[in-house]
Amino acid sequence: MLLVVVLELEGEKGEWGFKALKQMIKINFKLTNFPEMMNRYKQLLTYIRSAVTRNYSEKSINSILDYISTSKQMDLLQEFYETTLDALKDAKNDRLWFKTNTKLGKLYLEREEYGKLQKILRQLHQSCQTDDGEDDLKKGTQLLEIYALEIQMYTAQKNNKKLKALYEQSLHIKSAIPHPLIMGVIRECGGKMHLREGEFEKAHTDFFEAFKNYDESGSPRRTTCLKYLVLANMLMKSGINPFDSQEAKPYKNDPDILAMTNLVSSYQNNDITEFEKILKTNHSNIMDDPFIREHIEELLRNIRTQVLIKLIKPYTRIHIPFISKELNIDAGDVESLLVQCILDSTINGRIDQVNQLLELDHQKRNGARYMALDKWTNQLNTLNQAVVSKLA
Known about the structure:
It is a single chain. The chain is an all-alpha fold. Among the domains are: 1-53 and 61-67, no CATH class; 145-171 and 180-303, Serine Threonine Protein Phosphatase 5, Tetratricopeptide repeat. 72% of the residues lie in helices and 3% in strands. It contains 19 helices and 3 strands. Strand 2 and strand 3 (357-360) form a beta hairpin. Helix 9 (160-171) packs across helix 10 (180-196). The protein starts with a helix and ends with a helix. It holds the Pfam family PCI. Residues 203-365 form the PCI domain.
């Protein structure tokens, strides 16, 4: 092999040997010959101290790291990053050290090894602090990268308390020109946090910002975030179609998004049969995402509640088995839904479990309405008297 010959003919370590090793690493990676690839990589790292310039070695190793990062072999990636960090202890290349540690942190996040990730986060934070132990705002871009990684960890752990504080902190860093991908990550996690807290409008705003940032950076996460935007839109009970916006419109008929588009339509029309049919037909597309799956039950409860209210409106008494048939759920689930609606005053009534009946108290509901009207009339009368006395 010509590249091996180049290495053998090389006397003193220099640029040609470095270039040959770069190509050998990439070739062995493509051939999945990982032991040989690691040997050649370790050999290449001995060149970075003096054989090639600092800028050239940094650019080359960055390129190799990005190339190898496409691998799905977690153990290989871990060995690769750790080998790089060992070599950088003497090289004193802070930028390369930061990038490699960030990549290793992302790997630990993916593997859910949060203890190891926290250790890396501590090191990264220390590298961006002043002598007083405060965040060095001159390193705003790096700080945002660290925050993005930490925010993802707290999102995965569903630790909303720490997530909220960190999220607010990240939005107040003004000294950085952040990469849209980093801001996309931060906004997406913010959206998840707000949605879990029932702050649907804030979640909608964050998911929309995340979608725009991902779209700008060309990240495939944009379609996932668009699904989350649609989810927030439905939970807001908004009548506005999320695909009416200029940014989202081109994705309306995207195959990955189409199921969610149809879901919005059936949800807004309170068409429970169509809603459940779409869920069943597109089960993997919708339910394979753990975050969407987490909130689908709430959507089903909302749409069932709307259908239930419309269904019982003409009646004073209605059989629970009849409601069960109309909503296409078990009688037990109907009772649970009714209990919830009665407790939050969506429905005024009581359940007769013996006879399997819902007895409705329309008078109570009308009474509350008349009391509100009476109060409003009295307020108008008081206001009228005040105006008349001023004019007199």
